[in-house]
Amino acid sequence: MILFFDIDGTLWDYKNYIPESTKKAIKLAQENGHKCFINTGRSRAFVYSDELLGMGFDGIVSSCGCMIEYNGETVFNNLINKEDSLRTLSLMKECRFKPILEGPHYLYMNRPDFEGDMYGEKVMREMGSRLLSIDDNWGNWEMNKLSCVCDLETRDRCLSELDDLYDFMFHTDTIAEMVPKGFNKGTGILEICKILDYDPKDTVAFGDSINDKEMLETAGTAVAMGRSSDETRALADIITDYLEDDGIWNAMKKLELI
Question: For the domain that residue 30 is a member of, what is the CATH number?
């Protein structure tokens, strides 16, 4: 089996706490012959925790399926081309959006846009030298996807004009995640199955939120964490316990993976 794990709300909580039972379960699953992959909406540049990466995953699907690593090597990497990038950022500038560009090596944002913003401050604090300015690197960005704080007055017009390029996930009325069309966490699973010659039925996905929708729909077995939204629970074959109450361990025991 191939097992796919979301990060936020699944492998760790909002304080980046990973239960010891989760680490033990993943190691034991690998010893039993199963392959374990991170499958995240975060770009690869934003997957940097030594504790997380030290768990020894077989690979990482990042940026909602836009980038894939296996055994430490990049085997797939879809970057937004320069023409589309310039079109996107020029329109966002005109519409007073505040974007964060998410790539394999760097995140790009204009720091003044996010001063005093809780998430923006977290990104600035944690990314260090891997956070670059959008304006100072104009046209030379390397990105797989992007997120933005929208201006309500211009939001609908701006996103409508970019509808041919991206699928949008709205976290609030003004916060949108933008993924190139044709990519999601589910396509990441299918690409891994193609590379490793597995039937998608022989996969298990663990997630907690609606941005895990395609991953849970694509996997042979879908596991929703205990705090999952109602929408996510409706997609699940199994609803397990809270993350901190050995949710992953208990689900893997129930599925006889460990």
Answer: 3.40.50.1000
